[in-house]
Write a structure and sequence with these properties.
26% helix, alpha+beta, single chain, Vanillyl-alcohol Oxidase, Chain A, domain 3, binds flavin-adenine dinucleotide
């Protein structure tokens, strides 16, 4: 009889008989991948190529009862568990070494009720899946800016993108969630039903159970937005950002303007000679009447001498894929992130200096504009607490080979340190890397205590610990 060696919660190894694994397999509509399966390497790979972990088993779940069977199996054998939605998280917690990876990516469905303006979304759906189905009815909910990110992980951390200043975070539009509790119970959480759990799901990450589907409120939207890019040379970036800061302060909630500092990609509207040159890109999306967008953003065209621009009316669904080519899977990635209430001159100067020493052509700095409707709620309204943040700045170190690890990670850390004095000290849980356990308290902020109490109630054994972990109250 052959055995499988699996890692347990306490780090010990458990030898499981092939009969035990076959019994789990027989209980699923989906499939079990073992290290011998032909597509095991495909099954364990995620967006960030820095993460190279080898689960003992992968349960590819198709329906909620698969998730329950896999979680029951893990609890019974005290196995280390990881949960994969879209597999985009930079920390790589979707994959565990030696334990049971519960892969929800086959649950990639979306159902829109246009009359009620509501979408039901499977836990494996990607942002593009939800956008596509909702936009078919000229409806939308705010998500992130990259169509291949998973709805599940994004939502459980908060979720923001081009429409969040207008409609709030993804969690502000979450109506309910179905989940499998860590004791195997099938749960439904909403404002009316298990409201404490529903509160915790809206920003507390994957700490409280495995969500099998989400229900979102949808908003009517003009299917076309006014969107695009304006590109300035890095030599003008300090001045451009100071003027951008003033423009952003008065921007309406239905306009979001983000800055990207990096080497210019080979964009067709730039001269070939400018490809690879350090630049600042203003990326903007206006979701009001697209015919009014041109006049509204006019000042942004005159912040210096642009190298080029590509602006105009386009389908929102197309704009949602605009950054996909820069964010494809398979590269090595290391991120650092800070929240800001304002961009002071020192921050701007540090961003410009760091852009002149990019260690790889793939590295970039993102300045995301938040505020608007997001900040109308209190820090305690949902588990996501950062309701006073106007800008989030991400140092996206991204490169190709292990030989570049040190210089690229070092670049992100150095900029992070330089920006720290001006930052709020808080961090968005979804932008944290695997080496940031010391910052977990900064992600949950004033809500951490309540989250620990709820963790005690819903996961007292900390079965779900492959995440930005909230420890049960009794462990603290
Ligand atoms: C290229 C890129 C662009 C991004 N852009 C944005 C953006 O614009 N806005 C934004 O807000 N964020 C953005 N993010 C961050 C993103 O929100 C997080 O990486 C998020 O965790 C991705 O979710 P996922 O399901 O793809 O990830 P996964 O890696 O599959 O999951 C992340 C974690 O979430 C938990 N989890 C996932 N599914 C479930 C579930 N069903 N039940 C319980 N726990 C679960 C697990 O702990 C898991 O480790 C971006 C990330 C990338 C890589």
């Amino acid at each position: 009889m052959s055995h499988y060696s699996l890692k347990q919660l306490d780090g010990g190894a458990l030898q499981l008989s092939s009969e035990a694994v076959e019994s789990l397999s027989a209980a699923l509509r989906g499939e079990i991948l073992t290290p011998d399966s032909s597509h095991y390497d495909w099954g364990r790979s995620i967006w960030n190529a820095m993460i190279d972990r080898r689960p003992g088993l992968i349960a590819r779940c198709v329906v909620p009862s698969d998730v329950r069977a896999a979680l029951d199996f893990a609890r019974e054998h005290r196995l280390l568990v990881s949960v994969k939605g879209g597999g985009h998280n930079v920390a790589g917690n979707a994959v565990c070494d030696g334990g049971l990876m519960i892969d929800l990516s086959p649950m990639r469905w979306v159902r829109v009720d246009a009359e009620r303006q509501v979408a039901q979304v499977g836990a494996g759906a990607l942002l593009g899946d939800l956008d596509r189905e909702a936009l078919a009815y000229d409806l939308i909910t705010p998500l992130g800016i990259n169509s291949t990110t998973g709805v599940a992980g994004l939502t459980l951390g908060g979720g923001f993108g081009w429409l969040s200043r207008r409609f709030g975070l993804s969690v502000d539009n979450l109506l309910s969630a179905d989940l499998v509790g860590t004791d195997g119970q099938m749960l439904h959480a909403s404002e009316e039903h298990l409201p404490d759990l529903f509160w915790a799901l809206r920003g507390g990450g994957g700490n409280f159970g495995i969500v099998t589907s989400f229900e979102f409120k949808l908003h009517p939207i003009c299917p076309d937005v006014f969107a695009g890019l304006i590109v300035y040379p890095l030599s003008e970036a300090a001045s451009v950002m100071r003027q951008y800061r003033a423009f952003a302060a008065d921007a309406p909630d239905n306009l979001s303007v983000w800055c990207v500092l990096r080497q210019a990609p080979p964009l067709p509207f730039l001269d070939a000679g400018d490809h690879g040159r350090e630049v600042i890109l203003l990326a903007l999306c206006y979701s009001g009447n697209p015919d009014e967008g041109d006049a509204l953003i006019e000042p942004l065209r005159h912040l210096g001498t642009p190298l080029g621009e590509h602006l105009g009316r386009q389908p929102y669904g197309a704009w949602q894929t605009a950054f996909d080519p820069l964010l494809t899977p398979g590269a090595r990635n290391y991120w650092k992130s800070h929240n800001f209430k304002a961009l002071d001159d020192g921050v701007i100067d540090s961003l410009v200096a760091a852009t002149s020493t990019l260690p790889s052509p793939h590295c970039e700095i993102f300045v995301g504009q938040l505020g608007g409707v997001i900040n109308l709620r209190s820090a305690e309204a949902t588990a996501y607490p950062h309701r006073d943040v106007e800008f989030v700045i991400n140092m996206h170190a991204r490169w190709e080979t292990a030989a570049e690890d040190k210089s690229c990670v070092g670049w992100a850390r150095a900029l992070f340190d330089a920006l720290a004095p001006a930052a709020t000290g808080g961090v968005y849980v979804n932008f944290m890397t695997e080496d940031e356990q010391a910052r977990v308290g900064n992600a949950y902020g004033p809500n951490q205590r309540r989250l620990m109490q709820l963790k005690q109630r819903y996961d007292p054994d900390n079965l779900l610990r492959m995440n930005q972990n909230i420890r049960p109250d009794s462990e603290n």
